[in-house]
Every structure is written in C-alpha cells, then in structure tokens.
Amino acid sequence: MLKARVTIEKSFKTGEIDPKLYGSFVEHLGRCIYGGIYEPGHPSADEHGFRGDVASFIKELDTPIIRYPGGNFVSGYRWEDGIGPVNERPKRLDLAWRTLETNEVGVNEFSAWCKRVGSDPMLAINLGTRGIEAALDMLEYVNHSSGTYLSDLRIKHGYKEPHDVKVWCLGNELDGSWQTGHKTAHEYGRLALETGRAMKVIDPDLKLVTCGSSSTFMETFPQWEAETLMHTYDVADYISLHQYFSNADGDTPNFLARSLETDHFIKTVISTCDYVKAVKRSKKDMLLSFDEWNVWYHSSSGDADEMKNKPWQVAPSLIEDIYTFEDALVVGCMLITFLKHANRLKMACIAQLVNVIAPIMTETGGGVCKQTIFYPLLHASKYGRGTALMPVVSSPKYDSKDYTDVPYLETVAVTSEEHDELTIFAVNRNLDESIIMSLDIKGFEGYKVADHIVLECDDLKAVNTVANPGKVVPRSRDNTDEINGSEIEIKLEKASWNVIRLTGKPK
Prior knowledge:
By secondary structure, the chain is an alpha/beta fold. It has helices at 52-61, 107-117, 132-143, 149-156, 185-202, 223-232, 252-256, 259-279, 300-309, 325-340, 374-383, and strands spanning 2-9, 13-16, 23-25, 65-68, 92-94, 99-101, 120-124, 167-169, 207-210, 238-245, 287-295, 345-351, 360-362, 368-370, 387-389, 392-394, 397-398, 406-407, 409-416, 421-428, 435-442, 448-456, 475-477, 487-492, 496-503.
C-alpha cells in the first residue's frame, strides 16, 4: 500500500472560488437543445417545451452560468432568426455542424429557461460572419429596458423585462481554420476591441470574454494570446481557454496524467496575460474563463461520417460520448486543477450540458441518466465553494508515455468559514494500489470527519446508461473519527475520486 503526506494550513490561501467555476455550455449542436433540454411533447415537458427531468438534474448540479449559443455554431449565427413567433422563424443551414437549424429556441427562450433552472446566461456573439452592429443590436434587444425599437420589439415578443445578461463572449475559437470567419490574431484583436468598446458604451458593467487559443496544440499558441490581448486587454475582463482530452490509444496511466497539461496551460496563459499587463503598464489582472473543457473522443469517427454523408438534418445525434469511469477520474483531476488556480481562474463551462459530450444523457421521448462525469462535477459544485487552499503534498510518482513525475495523489482543499467546513478533493491515479493519505491539518482544531464520499469501480470502462443508470455511483464511507491533534489518516482506494468533508460544527 502506498503512502502520501498532505499538509493543509488554514493560511495557505490560493484565492476565493467564484461559483461560476462550475458553469456549463449549451450549443445548437446535435441533440443538446432539441431532444436535450427542449422536447415539446415529452411526458416531463413544461408549458414551454423544456424537459422537467433534465431541468431537475441541472438544478441538482447547481449550475451558476450557462454559455450559449456556441461554440462553432455562433460564428455563422443570425440572432434575429431566433426571436418572434416560432412558426415564422426561418430555417437555416448551419455550416459549423452541417445541420439544419429550425430556430425554435432562441435567446428569449434560453434566457427564460436559465431563470427556471437557477442559472445565469452567458451569451456569445458572432464575430465570424458578423461584427459590431449585430452585437450592439443583440445587446440592445436583450438588455435594454424599453423605449427603443429593439427593446420594444422584445416586449412585443412577450418579454417585458430585460434579460440583464452580464457576461458576453466576443466570438468563439477564431484562431481555428475550421471556424466560419476564421481570422488572424490582428484581425480578431481589432474587431473584438471595437465591438467590446461599443458594447460597454451601452452597458459599462458588462463582463467580456476575449478569445484565447482553441487549444495548446495550435501553432499560434501562446502568441495568439499575446497579440490579441495587446488590442483587447483594456476592454476585456476574461480570456478564454479550451481543452479536451482523449484516451484514443487506450493508455490509462497517460490519460489520467492529462491534467498536468491543464495546469501548464493555465500557467502559460497567466504568464502571457501578465506580460501584456506589464507592457501596457496596466494595474488590472486579466482573469481566465475555461469556457470549454471535457473528455471528448468516444464519438469522433462516427460523427465525421454522419456530417459528411448525411448533412442538413435537424438535431442529429452528434458527439454523444458515453463516458466511462476512467473519464470521471480525469474530469475530477481537471476540477482539482481549476481549484488550484482559483485566484485567476474565475469561470469554467464543461462542454456541454446535455447529450453532446455531456454529464446528462437523454433518450428522445424517454428517460434520462447521470453519466459518470456527472458526479465529480456535482461534488465540486456542492462542496467546492469558499476559499481554495493549496496543500503541500508528498506523493509517490510515476512516468507515463507523455509525462514524467506524475503524482499518484492529486488533491486540493477548500474551506468555507460560512459553513464551518473543510473539504478535501482527492484522486488516486494508481490503478493497482490504495494510498494511505496522512493529513496534517493546521488551523482547524476540533474538526471531525463528517463524510467521505468515494467514486470507485473495478471496471475502468464501466458506464451509466438510461437502462442501467447505477453502474457507477458514489457511496459514503463510514468514517467519523476525530482528528488526533492535527493528524488524520484516510485510505484512498485504487483509481478513485474522493471527497473528504470535515466540520467544526457539533453534531
């Protein structure tokens, strides 16, 4: 059995955790919207056509913010197509995913649905085929109270109160050659600057997200960040990061080490932002928005054939990854990495929310299930709010195909003074042995272990489905020992996600 030592000190504060770290993403792609969150005629659908069973899972996740309407889709989107009487809305060819968009759901329906599930909308604007004028029109329609043509048009469409959307993305992945309206860094930087500047004339309190690189594998990374930020630094509040991981070659130890790449990605972007800050003699720190992240590879080959051979369908099944237990461990490691950077990483959106590379999976006309990756996201959202603490960790390590000195123990701590709680998130990457984690906890005298939640499974490839939703589910271990002084030992099972909750409240 392996041994690791972790020291947690109350004063070792990384930063305050913004709840928006547990956001998600809904795109007009595949069955994410049509057949996912929205399915008129479904037994659980409300009077607006949105599925109640899906909404209940989203509420359980306590998703604070949801990005919409893309993604690649937004770079060819006409927002006006999705407003007004539904039966008069035009159908359009979506070049991003080669599907037919019916526009039954638009910005009004989405914003109203967000309120019903307890989330804030995060809207993306089209800077691929469109620009400043369309962005300003959309902002006026969505946010202005009344008395103008577009705000009064919203009222005429049945939405008297403005949606008051405060977070806006200045386009999506425009460094990518696959993007409709792909731009150079200079072209994008200038357009994003002028669009953002004009938007803040209408509402100075907007929070704007400028496009970072689509991935670390782009040849232009991180020069794209440096060049675009030279334009957008003063008007933007966040820069975006996107990252997806794959285990296409079946190398699980290497797959579980991928979050080291996330850590390096974040550090590189922060360094680039701070370089631009220094050049501009600015006093503002650029914050980070990891507004696309997940595991994505199970469905890739089939999707390529579907889009090539059967284009222009309405809501075909695309990018529907069925997640395994090992995928949940990778998602857990990424969430831990996010918390380690809580001082600068203030938003994140798992891509996506329903059906399309998502924690929630539905059957059209049928049931719904929580995929394996649902649970680390649920636990982080529920217990990972407060102040992130950076533990000092001594862990045995291993080398994999692409990484060296990978710690078997991945961990971070969160304290909530409001609830008098300390939560430790931990992943044991070792596939064969348990780890005895010796905790030296300082500044939390009198705390007791209230719960130890474990997600584990002997089959790394196990999945949850609508027919069998309980294959991979968390359980609680019975552990109510009081800390002996400041020392405690916790057993982490092989290949497991763990949530250890301690409280100073008397039972």
